[in-house]
Each structure stands twice: as structure tokens, then as C-alpha cells.
Specification:
Length: 229
């Protein structure tokens, strides 16, 4: 689940010539084919985990800085539930072109959708989002530096901190995108690991995030400011 506005780019959309990187040659012509067309696991969640591991392994081998985000990151922190529909990776804007080149050399198709805050890729039939702008803010070295090394189905990789995961979801709330129901289970599962006071300081005066924080208090998911739950 990308913490930005939902995009509707079709899976087979051609890569436009504009965006954060120039359009390159189709990935199928690359002589460096690291990812094979393996059989997908019958379970969609497992398929997303397999694709996540493949992409992370490529990025690690090529020395790229990144951090896992979205529902798979919640899973890595111990969350349960469906893994939505894709795997999200945070990368810095200045690294986007190099990351895309590494994935293409490994045999993954990569394209730039109309949205200008991410690149998209395919791995083992699953959607991969390469996000370099998280909730309208560029991904920074500091953000990636706060990530923790965690196992994702046996493969260790950097994963965004719980506070940063929830921060991105709060920052994405607006009058046009305010699905509290989708974020509430995540807040419940990560509540003991999140710095809620820091999030109140940042978003306590912003209407939609403040309303969600108030809802968490009323549901006794978190304690009121300065109180004990």
C-alpha cells in the first residue's frame, strides 16, 4: 500500500519518455538476467513476499540505499493481515535512475507512470513501487538511516521504522483521501512501537491526522497526551 494518492496505471502501460529518468531499452534484451520466470506461490501474500525478497536482493547486491515500506514493512514489524497488492520500496530521488538501471539489468521491467513520485516495476508477476517521495516529501538519507534491518520471510533488509510508517500514512490524509478504516488496523498492530507524542507534535493541529489521533484515543488504542493507556 503506497502512502500516497492511489494510482491507476495499467500493469502493461508503456514507460513514457518523461519523468525521473529517460526511457530505456526493454528489460528483456538485457544479458544480465538475475530474476527468472519462476512459478508463483498459490498464495498471493506469499507471492508478494517472494517478489519483495527478489527486489531487495538485487538492491543489496548493487549497493543501493533503500528501505521497505507499505504493508510488507508492517508485516516485517510483526503485523498480520493481507499484504495489499504490491511491495513498496523507498529510495532517494537522486538514486532513482541508478536503481531502475539495476533492476532492468536483472531482467525486471521498469517504467515511469504519470505520477511523478515513484517508478514502477514487475517481479514474479507482482507490482513493485519504487517510491522517492513519501507523502509529498522527498525520501531522505535520514529517513533511510532510521530503518531497521529485519527479516522478511528469511531475507534481511532495511525496513522503515514504525513511527515513519505511521507518519507517512497520517501525512497522506486529506479531504480527498481519508480512509481511516485502512490505517486503523496498522495503528493497532504497531501501537507499542510508535512514538505517538512525536506524531502529535507534528500533526496535532492538522485536521485529518488530528481527527485520526483522536479516534485512536477514543478507541483506547493509544493513551491521551500525557496519560496511560
Amino acid at each position: 500500500m503506497s502512502p500516497n494518492a492511489h494510482d491507476t496505471t495499467p500493469d502493461d502501460a508503456p514507460r513514457p519518455g518523461t519523468g525521473p529518468r529517460p526511457a530505456g531499452a526493454p528489460a528483456g534484451g538485457s544479458p544480465h538476467h538475475e530474476v527468472c520466470a519462476a512459478e508463483l506461490p498459490p498464495d498471493l501474500n506469499q507471492a508478494i513476499l517472494e517478489a519483495t525478497k527478489q527486489v531487495a536482493a538485487i538492491l543489496k547486491r548493487r549497493g543501493h540505499d533503500f528501505a521497505l515500506a507499505g504493508s510488507v514493512a508492517v508485516h516485517a514489524h510483526g503485523g498480520t493481515g493481507n499484504l495489499q497488492h504490491d511491495a513498496d520500496f523507498c529510495i532517494r530521488p537522486e538514486d532513482a535512475e541508478a536503481v531502475a538501471a539495476s533492476l532492468e539489468e536483472a531482467g525486471l521491467p521498469v517504467y515511469a507512470p504519470p505520477e511523478d513520485w515513484l517508478l514502477k516495476a514487475k517481479c514474479l508477476g507482482q507490482d513493485i513501487d519504487l517510491i522517492f517521495q513519501l507523502a509529498s516529501e522527498p525520501v531522505t538519507t535520514d529517513l533511510l538511516g532510521r530503518a531497521s534491518q529485519l527479516p522478511v520471510d528469511s531475507v534481511h533488509m532495511p525496513v522503515l521504522s514504525p513511527t515513519d510508517l505511521v507518519r507517512a500514512l497520517l501525512a497522506a490524509f486529506s479531504e480527498h483521501h481519508c480512509d481511516f478504516g485502512a490505517v486503523l488496523p496498522i495503528a493497532r498492530q504497531l501501537r507499542e512501537m510508535v512514538d505517538w507524542e512525536a506524531l502529535r507534535d507534528e500533526y496535532g493541529n492538522t485536521p485529518m491526522p488530528a481527527a485520526f489521533l483522536f479516534l485512536l484515543e477514543r478507541l483506547e488504542v493509544i493513551a491521551p497526551r500525557g496519560g496511560d493507556r
